Amino acid sequence: MRIDRRFRGDSRGLSLIELVFTVAILGILAMAVVPFTQMAAKRSKEIELRRNLRVIRTAIDDYKKDYDKAIKDKKIMDVANRSGYPESFEKLIEGEDFGGLYAYKKKYLRRIPVDPFHPPEVGEPPKWGMRSSVDDPESDLWGGEDLYDVYSLSDGIAIDGSKYKDW
């Protein structure tokens, strides 16, 4: 006597209901993962922005310290209306010997770091908001006298609710 396979309990495939149920669960899990990956990407950009701001600001401060040391050691003359901060990013990249304070041109940056939330166009240098030592701390306009501080040109809002340009 031959037993029909349809009625035996050892069928070897998935039913349509099991397949739909599995796909639905995978879809729900995928929808839950997407916001986490977006948040992780934003968080990594924020970390990069903080690091790049710290690198630039440290370079500016180091330049100012060396300028003040050169004046103190009488390597250069103190000039009226000169703050001692670099005139531009280029000065930080090209370097300065401060009248013989160093036997070489001390360079403070190898290149201008990129703002991850305001990347430059292809072939253009990175752009940052700049403030001089005589500018209002809340000003968005650079006076052009020197490079005292930098900020992001992005209008975005950080994960903590603050604005990137206020960092």
Descriptors:
single chain, 167 residues, mainly alpha, two-stranded antiparallel sheet, 38% helix, elongated
What's the structural blueprint in terms of helices and strands?
Blueprint: H1 16-72, H2 89-94, E1 129-131, E2 149-151
Antiparallel strand pairs: 1-2
If you had to describe this structure to a student in words, what would you say it looks like?
- One of its GO terms (biological process) is protein secretion by the type II secretion system.
- InterPro entries: Bac_GSPG_pilin (IPR000983), N_methyl_site (IPR012902), Pilin-like (IPR045584).
- One of its GO terms (cellular component) is type II protein secretion system complex.
- This is Type II secretion system pseudopilin PulG.
- It holds the Pfam family N_methyl.
- The protein is mainly alpha-helical and 167 residues long.
- The protein has one domain (48-166).
- The protein has two helices and two strands, in the order H-H-E-E.
- The chain has helices at residues 16-72, 89-94; strands spanning 129-131, 149-151.
- It has a two-stranded antiparallel ribbon.
- The radius of gyration is 29 Å and the shape is elongated.
- The relative contact order is 0.12.
- The mean pLDDT is 89.
Unreliable stretches (pLDDT < 50, length at least 5) are none
Number of β-strand runs: 2
Main sheet makeup: 2 strands, antiparallel
Specify the number of helices.
Answer: 2
Estimate the strand proportion: under 5%
By oligomeric state, this entry counts as single chain
User: What does the overall shape look like?
Assistant: elongated
**The number of domains:** 1
Instruction: Supply the helix-strand structural class.
Output: mainly alpha
